Amino acid sequence: MPYSLDFIKKVINFVENGGTITKASHTFGIGRASIYRWLYRPKLSATKVKSRQRKLDWKELEKDVKQNPQSKLSDRAKNFGVNQPAIFYALKRMNFP
Length: 97
What we know:
By secondary structure, this protein is mostly helical. The protein is built from six helices and no strands.
C-alpha cells in the first residue's frame, strides 16, 4: 500500500528534527528501508499516471480478428508479441464472442 505524501513528509520531518530512523520506524510503524528511500529521494512529489502505454494495439487486434476470424489465441499472441491472456482480455473487453 503506498503511503500518502503528507505521511512521508511527516516521517521525514521527524527524522530531520532529531529523531532517529529506528525510532521513526517504530513510531510510525513502517520499515527503515522505506525511510532511507524517502530521505535520499531527490524530489518528493505526487505522481499521476495519465494512461498506461499498452503493448497490444486493440485497433490492430480488431482488424486482425475481422480478417482472420478462425485464428487461435496462441497464434494471435505470437503475432502481436504478447501472451494469450492479454489477447483474451482484450477480446473480452472489446465484446468479441
